Amino acid sequence: MTFATSSGRDSAWSAALFAAPAMLLFLVFLLLPLIVAAGATFSNHRLVSPQPTEFVGLDNFRRLLSLQVVVIDPIADGAPRYPGWRAVRAAQPRLQGYREAFRLHWGRKRVVLAATDPLFYRSLVNTFRFAAMVMPLQCATALGLALLVNQKVRGRGFFRTVYFAPVVTSMVIVSIVWSFLLNTDRGMVNELLRAITGDGNAGPDWLGDPGYALPAIAVMSAWQGAGFQMLIILAGLQSISPELYEAATLMGANAWQRFVHVTLPGLRNTLIFVLLSTTIMAFGLFTQVDVMTAGGPLDSTTTVIYHAVRAGFREQDVGYGSTVALVFFVLVLAVSLLQRKLSSRGESV
Amino acid sequence: MSRSGPPIRRRLRALGMGMLMNAVALLFALPLLFMFASSFKSDTAIFKDLSSWTALLPAPDWSLANYRAVFDKSELPTFMLNSAIVAALTVVGGILVNSMLAFALARLRWKGRQAVLTLVLAMLVVPFEVIAIPLLSVVARLPWTAYAHGALVVRHGWFNSLQVQIVPFLANAFCVFLFYQFFRDIPSELDEAAKMDGAGPWTIYWRIIMPNSGPVIATAAIVLFLGAWNQYLWPAMVIQGAALRPVQPGIQQFFGRSNSWGQIMAYASIITLPVLAVFLACQRRFVASVMGSGIKG
């Protein structure tokens, strides 16, 4: 079966030769960057700089993560008015360098979460919001599509190709075409809404309204990516033994019961894989934002990766950009490990 | 799934299912149809058709004016050529190095095999976005040879080059994984017989394993081609100037500069067509292979 029995050493040499090119490339373009990133987080390394790189300890992490909670009392009774952030900061030395990230209300008090890099926390919240929207949407869409093309009807190969077509279209193109579809005055989506409601002014400013921009991008992303997971779920569906369905039918199960008690358990490992891959994709959100909204309106669509690229590339601050990226990576790992732990008991994916 | 019930009910069910599948297909095809149809229309015609089905169909007075304008106004041919070179070399080189590593993992027995396999699987979860920034710093220092004043000289820094768009993407953990799974299932009698005839591992890889791996080569080719052709973030960071720019950052720039919907759609259609063509050409194998991969590892 292998070369081990005849001459072990020859085999070790040839194995090394076969493995070397790819391993070398992985080393230089994947492991080395990870090591550089880990090192850069403790430095003020810049892409091009006349000054030598210095060790700055945990400064990058401090700048990224520092967060303080400030409770502000209203100035007057009646309709509450609050002092401005500058006045609050001037009164408390511990708030030097902090800016407002979020504002909440607690009874009559205003609670401000202040950070040295408020944009990072906003990006973090946006990234989680995006993941929370796109994961169920994309997985459910993919499952629905897979169930559709698993039907024994004529032309299902055609439908499979059509549902898959957005996956092969580049995200840049998809984002550009959807920007037109979502255009406030002339977009097809709003034209359709107006036609249905009969209200000539119906339809939100999808990409210009902080409340709609991120959900709109989430729907588009799910539309673009669902076809890929459809194929993987389809493979899972076809590996479920037909006898299980027949047995369930004999026991009097209706279509819904068969779906819940045969299909879903049979797809368990597949769905875990799909969920994991969607999560990793969702946390990497960048292109759509860069093309459609540039992080706006009012920072409602900046994401962690968008923030990292802004710092690391546009401002050439590799040390800080790497810190953002590394914190993001730890998050992705934690979330995927958590998902795996929650969803798999004993079985491996 | 149910094959019981009276024929009328069954036929109604099939009819409903067909209508549902067509409606969903329209939903998925609509943006692309809109893109292709609009690329042949003037802007006034696009806006006039927006609220009706004609937005998805070419107008009777269609023209190639938008395409002509795109070629006149932008450096699209240069961008296409750059992307084509990058994609072709990435596909060929990527198939070679990834299949070789997979061959060593699946068909040779050596110390550390399990460790390398685990490492490759671990690399699957590192998103490119995480290493993009530090990778900038790495490629800024890499050497490359150049030919200047009649002699070979070594220069440092890969910015503004073709190789910076190719070499970092050759080794691809997902492709190694695809090849590994496929090679593992090829019956070992094939190489046993060749070994009897004195064939070495290279002969077995080149003459026996690879010629029997059409489907997985097609899949890896699509994965590598899509990745290379659709590159956006990376070239936007490492390529300044138009000479070596690929198509995706090119259209992003055109999108920011032009306000003619028709021209942007023409541009988008031109750079989408090659991908759709490659996909349609290998889709049968691709679909079969993606469905067979993934979770059974």
How do the strands and helices of this protein lay out in sequence?
The complex is a heterodimer of chains A (349) and B (297).
Chain A: H1 8-40, H2 59-65, E1 67-72, H3 85-91, E2 99-106, E3 109-115, H4 118-149, H5 156-168, H6 171-181, H7 188-197, H8 213-238, H9 242-250, H10 255-266, H11 268-283, H12 287-292, H13 304-314, H14 318-343
Antiparallel strand pairs in A: 1-3, 2-3
Helix pairs in contact in A: 1-14, 4-8, 4-11, 4-13, 5-8, 9-10, 11-14, 13-14
Chain B: H1 7-38, H2 43-49, H3 65-73, H4 76-107, H5 113-123, H6 128-139, E1 143-148, E2 151-156, H7 163-166, H8 173-184, H9 189-196, H10 201-209, H11 214-229, H12 233-238, H13 247-257, H14 261-292
Antiparallel strand pairs in B: 1-2
**CATH fold call of the largest domain in chain A:** MetI-like fold
Strand content of chain A: 5-15%
Count of the separate structural domains of chain B: 2
Task: State the low-pLDDT regions of chain A, or none.
Answer: 1-9
Let me know the largest β-sheet of chain A: 3 strands, antiparallel
Number of separate helices of chain B:
14
Give the strand order of the largest sheet of chain B, numbering strands 1, 2, ... along the chain.
Answer: 1-2
Mean pLDDT of chain B: 86
Characterize the overall form of chain A: globular
Domain module count of chain A: 2
Structural class of chain A: mainly alpha
Major pleated sheet of chain B: 2 strands, antiparallel
